[in-house]
Give the backbone structure.
Amino acid sequence: VSELHKTRRELLDNVIGGTEETTTGVIRLRAMAQDGALQFPVIAVNDAMTKHLFDNRYGTGQSTLDGLIRATNILMAGKVFTVVGYGWCGRGIAMRARGAGANVIVTEVDSMRALEAVMEGFRVMPMHEAAPQSDFIVTATGDKNVIDEPHFAIMKDGCVLANSGHFNVEINIPALEALAVHKHQPRAFVDDFELPDGRRIRLLGEGRLVNLAAAEGHPAAVMDMSFANQALCAQYMFAHHATLENKVYPVPTDIDLEIARFKLEAMGIRIDALSAEQTAYLSSWQEGT
Ligand SMILES: NC(=O)c1ccc[n+]([C@@H]2O[C@H](COP(=O)([O-])OP(=O)(O)OC[C@H]3O[C@@H](n4cnc5c(N)ncnc54)[C@H](O)[C@@H]3O)[C@@H](O)[C@H]2O)c1
């Protein structure tokens, strides 16, 4: 999408619309629409409940832990594990790290999400307090330099850093490279940076998405819902593009609900249905209270 808008604009006439998979992609597209720069309508697949509640949370939660374990083979039980960002991905990572027996800290910049993490039973604190006590620090923010030079200066010896959010910008790797007096690779996907005071910081997968670099990404059993959204939204876009403006649209609720129904059916799980009496009761204001 970015290339089409920046360098291949001659192709734009043939594009009727798009569908966007990721959190960060949707943020960028909303910014383009806000500036009037977006040249075709886009459906924000990431915003579907059958996408972010499952892929971002359970998919990223599991595959991130998988990447960390495959890369390091360090025992999680009893380790202090900091998750940076308590969004959908961060929630999943924190939940699975706790399940593996780690003592989980969450850092956030959003009060509501920080509060949620506190009530979920996680320790919440600023990064400068988390850094000196963490054995693992994993980012999932979509933001840049959330782990930066002042944090490297106070990190515990042997701290393992990984990113499961966006691209390779969440950890300030150029600053870490500049600080290091020696760098070597003790195992695949692990870069060991020695600092002037002798402490070591270990960066996984060059700071790129650790679940893709050191593991296999999400299992198909959760990506199926994300890609069902992609397919059904492409079909919707094909049918409705003539009436859509150059904006970012949510996934139609009917598509989201249909995917949830199909997923349950595929898992062999049946649920109850409202009776006529219950439907009438739930939609009435005259009965009850
Ligand atoms: N690894 C994967 O396979 C995978 C899968 C899905 C999404 N993603 C990516 O992961 C990132 C996060 O996605 P999400 O759906 O959880 O997003 P989200 O918007 O739900 O959550 C991001 C959270 O990070 C917080 N944050 C931002 N800057 C911060 C900072 N400096 N310190 C602490 N917290 C900070 C925000 O307040 C927010 O709560 C995105 O870049 C997304 O594209 C990766």
